[in-house]
Structure formats: C-alpha cells, structure tokens
Amino acid sequence: MSEQLLKQHRDAIDHIDATILKLLNERAEHARQIGEIKGGGVVYRPEREAQVLTRIKSLNPGPLPGESVARLFREIMSECLALEKPLSIAYLGPEGTFSQLAATKHFGHAARGVACSSIDEAFRLVESRTLDYVVAPVENSTEGAVGRTLDLMITTPLKICGEVVLRIHHHLLRSVATTEGIRRVYSHAQSLSQCHEWLNKNLPVDVERISVASNAEAARLASLDPAAAAIAGQAAAERFGLTKLAENIEDEPNNTTRFLVLGHQDVSPSGSDKTSIVVSAPNRPGAVHSLLAPVADNGVSMTKFESRPSRVGLGDYVFFIDMEGHRTDANIAAALQGLAEKTAYLKILGSYPVAVL
Ligand SMILES: C=C(O[C@@H]1C=C(C(=O)O)C=C[C@H]1O)C(=O)O
C-alpha cells in the first residue's frame, strides 16, 4: 500500500467534505428562508420532495447507486425542513415496529416519531392536531389489506398526502444464541402467517405460536423470557438486544408493506401521482361493473381495487380504488365526476406522489 497515495486521496476527501458542508448549509439557509415565506403555514410539501428525489436519481452519474443518493437527499431534506419547523409523526408503536421504519424512511431522521398504542390513537392525535402526520400500514403483499386502516379512512377528516413502500424482512430473534429449548414464538398475527411455512419446517410442532399486538412487543416479550423467541425485524432486534437465529424467514421473498401518510393538507401535483377514493355500490348484479365505467371510459388506470364490508348490513360493500394521476388531471376529474353521478357515496381520500424511495 502506498502511504503517499492514500494521503493524497484522504486530503482530497477532506477538501470535498469541507465543500459539501458549506453547500449543505447554503441549502439549509434557502430552506429556512422558504420557511419564512410560508409564514407559519404548511411547511411540508410532499410533491416538491418527490420532485427533488426523482431529479437527484435522474441526475446521478454514479458510482453511487440511485437509491443511495436518494436516501442521502432524503436525510438532507429532513434536516432542512426541521429548520423551518420540526415535524411530529404518529405511528403504531412501540419503538422498533415496521411502522416506525416506514415513518423514518419517508420523513428522515430529523422528524420526531411518536409511538402510539393503536392505529386509532395515531389517527386521533393527528386529527386533533396534537401531532402533524400519521403513517399507517394499509396493505401487505402476502396478507392483503389492513382492515382497521381502511375502516378509519372512511371516517377520518385527514387526507392522504403520501405513500411509503417498505420491504419487510422477518428474523427469528432470541435472548440466547441457540434454537434449543424454544417453547413459544411471539409475533404479530400477520408476521406469524407470513412466516408460516418456515415455522412448519424449522421449529418442532409443539412450539406455541402466540400472536401479540406488534412485532416490537413480541421482541420485548422474548427479551424477558429465555424460553421464547420472536419474529420481528432488524429495528426490533436492535431495540431489545436480541440475537438473530435465522434471517429473512418470510415465506414470500418479495414481502412488502405499503403505508399511507395522512395529514390535513391537499397536495399539489408532482407529475407522478395517485388518487385514492372509496365508493359504495348497490348490492345488485352488474352494479360494480357499471360503477367502474367512468374510470375505463376516461382511460384512467386503476392500481388497486379492494372491497370491504360497509358494516351497514350483510352483503353491503364499499370499494377502495387507487387510480394513476392527480385529481386535478382532466381524465381523473372526469372519472370522479362520472363516479359521483353513479354512486350514493364517494369520498376522495387524497391525491399524492407515488413513492420515490
Ligand atoms: C424547502 C422547502 O420546504 C421543505 C423542504 C424541502 C427541501 O429541503 O428541499 C422540500 C419541500 C418541503 O418539504 C420547500 O418547500 O421548497
């Protein structure tokens, strides 16, 4: 190894770091002044943040991967925004849940996460303006819809202003470094079911599977009980100092969860957006087909269609629909108009940028 060459590169890095630092602070100063122009109004602008991240990815010449530079800029924007006003984010706790990871992935580390005891509580704290935004799981690629979040979407005055897509990796965690003597496995019901095959193959049949409120709660219980293991993610393993006995034990290799970000604001178009709505359809043959005609007639692509009991009576359903585009786009506006004429109930849940990270 040439000491001389090493020193040359390190000197270059020192010089570059000083330049990056100066530029970061110049950027932050612009953000602070933008905050003053906003004059105490809404500071977080999801459409602008999505545009910044998309632009950075498209400008990136490498060798750093596009995902990596986007993550770095996610944190830079998080710190710049905190100079305007620090944001508070409600998520389903305790600390170490995938909801917390999703909140950090979307808002960066400068936002203050607040662990809530239920999805309902997280919504309530934002509805009452005690906290700024809520991040709530809405669907998992293996397990399907998160019913409680969908039900809350119907009644909440909050609007969707973003989405977060998170790859979910589950690990078998324990306070001791061996699989010998495991009597029970704690996890959230969805995670137990996402790792069902692995558990059948790898643990004795008499190991009890116990579902608890969250994966982080499972990790906490396992940290107190040497005869127990937990299925949870990396964050929970770190939070409770558990050993990873087996990694990535989810049965479905592309296991992902989608989260929604909700707040009080309507979001302007970013150029790559989705619009989410919920509608009811009368309980008679062909009703859904006829209801959807305005969507097809206006050339709108649906990215999701999910039915859910309306809870009014057996056989009555509401339909959650995601469409590609912003509600101010001509084709979406026309589809929404057509839908409104055909249904007794239509709620626009929000238009928001497609996840960039
Ligand atoms: C600086 C602004 O405020 C926030 C910070 C941003 C940034 O750091 O680039 C972008 C959008 C806003 O969430 C802005 O609105 O442009």
UniProtKB/TrEMBL annotation:
Its main location: cytoplasm. The keyword Phosphoprotein does not apply. The keyword Aminoacyl-tRNA synthetase does not apply. Catalyzes the Claisen rearrangement of chorismate to prephenate and the decarboxylation/dehydration of prephenate to phenylpyruvate. NCBIfam families: CM_P2 (TIGR01807), PRK11898.1 (NF008865). PROSITE patterns: ACT (PS51671), CHORISMATE_MUT_2 (PS51168), PREPHENATE_DEHYDR_1 (PS00857), PREPHENATE_DEHYDR_2 (PS00858), PREPHENATE_DEHYDR_3 (PS51171). It catalyses: prephenate + H(+) = 3-phenylpyruvate + CO2 + H2O; chorismate = prephenate. GO terms for molecular function: prephenate dehydratase activity. This is Bifunctional chorismate mutase/prephenate dehydratase. CDD domains: ACT_CM-PDT, PBP2_PDT_1. It comes from Crenobacter oryzisoli. Residues 1-88 form the Chorismate mutase domain. Keywords: Amino-acid biosynthesis, Aromatic amino acid biosynthesis, Cytoplasm, Isomerase, Lyase, Multifunctional enzyme, Phenylalanine biosynthesis. Residues 88-264 form the Prephenate dehydratase domain. It is found in: Cytoplasm. Pathway: Metabolic intermediate biosynthesis; prephenate biosynthesis; prephenate from chorismate: step 1/1; Amino-acid biosynthesis; L-phenylalanine biosynthesis; phenylpyruvate from prephenate: step 1/1. Its EC number is 4.2.1.51, 5.4.99.5. Residues 276-353 form the ACT domain.
